[in-house]
Specification:
heterodimer; A: six-stranded mixed beta sheet; 53% strand; globular; B: 112 residues; mainly beta; four-stranded antiparallel beta sheet; 11 strands; 0% helix
């Protein structure tokens, strides 16, 4: 899939810095969230997930924070690398359905 | 590493023609999904499939769309009479537990 420069929020960071990508979700019944990374011409790639009974989860170089009070999700990438350049989507699922609802995406650009 | 594979990578078809998009989900997964992404827009849910039947579908998934699992490995999406607005990237995803979802690389459908 491509999100070629069409009104996507963009975050530019220097290589080696930390990145924080934010996502607001709308459904208070959502109980499970995933962050996906999508590189140009490729499908969404699973990065990290979190259930609604947690407020933080850490992976390798990535951390997801969930604030259910304000319905906000963030993805933190430590020591951002050029290979992290992509569009990042948060996806939410409510406890009743099978489908994921994707956010609009944020383009991360890593500057040398 | 197991992955979802989709064929073809690009399909061009004339308006009004039928197309079949093919997917091989990850082996032993039981939940299957189709999503689409119109250029520059977010990923949208079409349909989920479990136990040989549709478990959920969106408003986009009208009578022109159908899904099938013709054998033990393939999962197909058929569009009966394509319209110009069906042009998009179509992503297949599968899940072992019905919780997380792993996506294929997508099929770009262009209707002319």
């Amino acid at each position: 899939g491509e999100n070629v420069g069409l009104h996507l929020p963009t975050l530019s960071v220097q290589e080696g810095d930390n990145s924080i990508i934010n996502c607001a979700y709308s459904n208070s019944a959502s109980d499970y969230f995933i962050w996906y990374k999508q590189e140009s011409g490729k499908g969404p790639q699973f990065i990290i997930d979190i259930r609604s009974n947690m407020d933080k989860r850490q992976g390798q170089r990535v951390t997801v924070l969930l604030n259910k009070t304000v319905k906000h999700l963030s993805l933190q990438i430590a020591a951002t690398q050029p290979g992290d350049s992509a569009v990042y989507f948060c996806a939410e699922r409510d406890g009743y359905g099978q489908n994921f609802v994707f956010g609009p995406g944020t383009r991360l650009s890593v500057l040398p | 590493e197991p992955e979802v594979t989709q064929t073809p990578s690009h399909q061009v078809t004339q308006m009004g023609q039928e197309v079949i998009l093919r997917c091989v989900p990850i082996s032993n997964h039981l939940y299957f999904y189709w999503y689409r992404q119109i250029l520059g827009q977010k990923v949208e849910f079409l349909v989920s499939f479990y136990n040989n039947e549709i478990s959920e579908k969106s408003e986009i998934f009208d009578d022109q769309f159908s899904v099938e699992r013709p054998d033990g490995s393939n999962f197909t999406l058929k569009i009966r009479s394509t319209k110009l607005e069906d042009s998009a990237m179509y992503f297949c995803a599968s899940s072992g537990t019905g919780i997380e979802a792993f996506f294929g690389q997508g099929t770009r459908l262009t209707v002319v």
